[in-house]
Amino acid sequence: MHLRYVSKFPFIAAVMCAAASISLGACGGTDPVDDVVAAAGEAQELTAESAEALTCPASVPHMDFRKSFMVTKERDQAILAQNEFKLESVLKQIIASEGSNQDAEELYKRWWDTQNKSGTGAAFTDGIHCNDNGMVDANNGRLNDFEYACPRPEGALAQADSHPFDPADDDFMEPIALVNRFDLAPVDGAHCGEYRIIYAKKSGQTNILNRNFIIFEAQLPNPHPECELAACLPVAQFWADLSTLDDDTRKEKLKEFYVDGLPGFEPVIKASHFMQGTGQIRTNQFMGFPWMLREFKLDKDNNGPNSSVRLFVKPVTVKDNPFGPLFSNSYTPDHTGDNRDVLFQSSFLDALDGLVPAGDDENKISLLTLPTPDVYNSGESKVDSSNDYKGQIQGNTAFMTSIETELGPILQDRGLWPNAVTAEDAAARATTQSCAGCHQLSGSGSLGGFHVWLGHDSSRTPSSFVHVDEQGQISAQLEWKFLPHRWQVLKSFIEEASCEGACSSTAASAAFSSFSAAASATSADAPLDGEEHVPTLGGSTTH
After folding, report:
1. Three-state secondary structure readout of 84-125
2. Partners of 178 in the beta sheet?
3. Torsion-angle region of residue 219: left (phi > 0), alpha (psi -120 to 50) or beta?
4. 183, 490 contact by CB (below 8 A)
5. Residue 371 half-sphere exposure toward CB, CA atoms < 13 A
6. Is 122 within 8 Å of 135 (Cβ atoms)?
7. pLDDT, tens digit, 9 for 90 and up, residues 384-406
8. Average pLDDT score over the chain
9. Which pTM was predicted?
10. 445-446 and 452-453: which strand pairing?
11. Among 175, 171, 172, 165, which residue's Cα sits nearest to residue 198?
12. Collapsing DSSP states into helix, strand and coil, what is residue 17?
């Protein structure tokens, strides 16, 4: 049950508070058996109290979008300019976290060599290359048995004359934003959300045809998963309280969070937070056409000197990004027996429940209910017609009819009129969840029913392609849609998870107390990859 529903049902709230007290008492080292009787009695007492008393709302400070959710170069250059956030420093910390002594620049260049073909053009003979799984045609390799553009111009970043750590070089990667995605914490508390660092290629400041962005999206482990989401409260409180701190203190706190970790929590910057089953690294590549977005994971082997640990970056599928032609009636299988178009079009019917949520908040639209999603995901999200699912579905009348038949009872359940959401609308909603859709393809307009998508605003910067540009400026979608939603998720969680005794974990309490003291002193006022998603606090996995 989502936390926001708890206060509406006193008995359920009482039981949940009691259960939390039992579980969280165990986290703090007390005897859970001894706590059972007390907790049960407490639950009986709680049911006799008013619903208002059960909500126990904490006092949440006024939260500034640009201090508690998106810290960017535009307003906080001093924070982003710290040595600890430089790409070289981040890669060195990632390497050291696995006990490796490999070179940071080599790790980076091997990563971009994945965009080259082996042989001519490759910088390393023993690395991963885009034609390792064979070539579909002269311009495309394979990933997940779908076409994968090969080679890409970004492969030039693997060459000796590229200097990503030199501020004077066009290939310099500058940190432009720190991002709070607590809203991506799953409702079962398997982890405590994602925390990101965005880098932009220097050349993009003056050349729109030579842009490249990297996003390190670390998934922060829950140190006490037995406590479920309640153990993540110190992380939520940390980000909320950043808005109350002076600039110098906020600068130090963010560095500590990313580099050292809150007391009892791991640091954000750690290799294991970008590996299989955890976070990921995504790229926004615009050094050539078509513009596209890709996804990567860290992995390791023992192929370093003297069989030492060696980290490497490997391409993986882009999540929530089904291969576009699967929507069509003209899918060309990669090999005999590849009937993923038939399987996908059957599975997509199960995704409609998530694509058509109640209400009018487009942040709630998701592909969470699509079964076995990674079977259908592409290795890249192209900003062209191939990733426009509404366009792809045209002419596939049998699939469109099946969608509209399945939508009938869903629309009725949502209190919507017949055909309020059509098959075309459903495909357009799926496009919004893809990287290419969210960044560019999904323009402003109705998605059917009460949902209206907000696209880029051409009158402001950035006006297209990115949500944070090289100068740290943010898009209209972030400012008016995504950030307000994340703000509400964080506020509601803190208010509803901060009931007295909600988490007696020693580690959580220490983290909460440590940060609260600093705030008071300065205040001016998981699922494995490829498996079904666990719902997140924010309701989506992308926005």
Report:
1. HHCHHHHHHHHHHCCCCCCCHHHHHHHHHHCCCCCCCCCCCC
2. 71, 197
3. beta
4. yes
5. 9
6. no
7. 999 999 999 999 999 999 999 99
8. 86
9. 0.86
10. antiparallel
11. 175
12. helix
Distance CA 119, CA 155 (A): 13
- Phi then psi for residue 146, to 5 deg, are -120, 155
The mean pLDDT value for 156-179 works out to 98
Instruction: From 392, 403, 424, select the one nearest 350 (Cα to Cα).
Output: 403
CA max distance for the chain: 76
Ramachandran angles phi, psi of 180, nearest 5°: -95, 115
Residue in this structure with the two tokens 């965009």, named with its chain if needed: 115
Rounded Cα gap, residues 243 and 446, in angstroms:
35
Going along 222-309, which residue ranges are E strands? Answer: 280-286, 292-301
pLDDT by residue (tens digit) across 421-452?
999 999 999 999 999 999 999 999 999 999 99
Instruction: Quickly list DSSP for 137-159.
Output: ETTEEEETTEEEE-S-GGGGGGS
Backbone angles phi, psi at 486, to 5 degrees: -65, -35
Q: Judge whether 390 and 423 are in contact, CB under 8 Å.
A: no
Q: How far is CA 442 from CA 88, 388, 399, 427, 435, in A?
A: 35, 8, 22, 11, 10
- DSSP run (H or E) holding 315: strand 310-316
Say how far residue 227 (Cα) sits from the centre of its chain. 23
Per-residue DSSP letters for 212-227?
A: EEEEEEEEEEPS-GGG
- The CB-side HSE value for 23 (13 A sphere, CA atoms) comes to 17
Q: Mean pLDDT, to the nearest integer, of 99-125?
A: 96
Residue 528 has pLDDT above 50, yes or no: no
* Angle, CA of 452, 455 and 460, to the nearest 5°: 135
